[in-house]
Design brief:
The protein has 139 residues and is of the alpha+beta class. The protein is 22% helix and 32% strand. The protein has 2 domains: 72 residues, ACT domain (Alpha-Beta Plaits, 2-Layer Sandwich), CATH 3.30.70.260; 57 residues, Alpha-Beta Plaits, CATH 3.30.70.20. Strand 2 and strand 3 form a beta hairpin. Helix 2 packs antiparallel against helix 3. The N and C termini lie far apart (38 Å). Bound molecules: iron/sulfur cluster (2 copies).
């Protein structure tokens, strides 16, 4: 029985790998739904993509192995948005600017702000609205 899963992954690639149609390969070979949150190719052909993959669990895992074998660095637990807990003053300024509540308060008593990367859609709005520089982009 198939088990459909979704994962958010951060891809980094350079040179030869950047010439490959990575996303279309994932769709064609592994029958995955791909959500591209954000992508950037630099002048030196180094590239980064923050994507969401949805599909059969076995095929999702095989597709990530395929990417790794194609010289694509795959980070399954990281996001393109880096939240620095040490710098975060829990001022709350970002909360109304975060459309998915990836930045949120779980404890109404302490009002400590926390970050849930699985909900982040990489809009980067928090970077523009954080007075303490606690949010920055990996790429
Ligand atoms: S990048 Fe957007 S979705 Fe992600 S934490 Fe910042 S404001 Fe929220
Ligand atoms: S705006 Fe910056 S310092 Fe304030 S709660 Fe959000 S991430 Fe933390």
């Amino acid at each position: 029985m198939s088990n459909t899963i979704s994962k958010k992954v951060l891809l980094s690639f350079s040179g030869i790998a950047s010439d490959k149609p990575i996303v279309s390969e994932l769709i064609r070979k592994y029958n995955l739904e791909i959500n591209i949150y954000r992508a950037k190719i630099g002048n030196n052909e180094e590239g980064h993509m923050a994507i969401g993959v949805t599909g059969d669990e076995k095929l999702v895992n095989e597709s990530l192995k395929y990417l790794k074998s194609s010289n694509v660095e795959v980070k399954e637990t990281e996001t393109g948005l880096i939240w620095d807990e040490e710098k975060c003053a829990s001022c709350g300024n970002c909360l109304t600017h975060c459309p998915t509540k990836a930045l949120h308060i779980t404890d109404s008593h302490s009002r400590r702000v926390e970050f849930d990367g699985s909900k982040c859609i990489e809009c980067l709005s928090c970077i523009r609205n954080c007075p303490f520089g606690a949010c920055k982009s990996f790429f």
